[in-house]
Amino acid sequence: MSKHFRVPGRLSSKLKESGVHVSSVLQSAGLPSGLLDQPRVLVTTEEFFALWRGIGQVSPDPAIGLALGTAEKSEHFDPVVLAALSAGNFGEAMRQIARYKQLSCPEEVVLEPGDQEWTIQFRWLLANEEEPAVLTDLCFAWVLSIARHGTGMRISPVRLELQRPRASARSLERHFGCPVVFGAARNAIVFRAADAELRFVTRNAELLAMLAPQLDEDLKQHKGEESFPERVRATIQRKLTGSRPKMGEIARELHISSRTLQRRLQDAGLNFQKALEEARHQLARHYLTNSLLELSETAHLLGYEDSNSFVRAFRVWEGVPPAHWRGAQREKALS
């Protein structure tokens, strides 16, 4: 997993086009004045969140995230999105994006298919604070932009779910063309399950055949740069969806034997139980910071049998119960 975000090179020009002074944004965010002048801008999650909070504070437009997340011209799409637009349908496109997203940042695109609905969320893997509202708006506007560009239709989601209090409701409803639920337990954009099968008019098998091998090679090199324990923890986190994954299951996901998994973890000074607890710890911080899930729901998602087991584990990790830790994080975000 990459530990840094790449800030798009066009961000400065897009901010200027929107009437936002870059220098004011960086000053508000507490970031170096020449940060966006570099040819390749890499920032931590904390710096990335600060940047987007700064944009929200400086911009007079409460819908600035929607504007920055909407791309009208295909030449403004990066290779990952171009590959996605070359796919056969909306679902395939988002699976492409979810696969390659880890090339550029510590973020996951989480796709949850269901019988009636198809939910898309963004998970900030190294976040210790709530994501800025501007960034949430941008991410969901970006997904909608891909859907509309690919299908050639003015597709709209079923609803938008936002954790924040009600604000700018009319702008959001007009942009997404659907109801917006404020004070929700999660940040999510929800489509109809059938929308995943909508064919893309931008489908381009030849372009995909050109882009995919390079992206796959980049992904292979990226995974080679990851330490083995990081790969194990990331795999465990993908499997922590209400049950505790067993070592054999993780080994199969990594295409190695359980014995090899054990040996390679031992070489790094770990064992599977330790890797599991580290994965749970990191994911617990994410859920407590970025969702309104009850402790019982969080415990279930992390594969604990009951809330008490989760609370005991969290006290070992952080020295305080999870409810106290969550409260302290929210106070810090408001200060």
Automatic annotation (TrEMBL):
It comes from the Bacteria. InterPro entries: AraC-type_N (IPR032687), Homeodomain-like_sf (IPR009057), HTH_AraC (IPR018060). One of its GO terms (molecular function) is DNA-binding transcription factor activity. The keyword Transcription regulation applies. Residues 230-328 form the HTH araC/xylS-type domain. SMART domains: HTH_ARAC. GO terms for cellular component: cytosol. Transmembrane segments: none annotated. Keywords: DNA-binding, Transcription, Transcription regulation. This is AraC-like DNA-binding protein. It comes from Tunturiibacter gelidiferens.
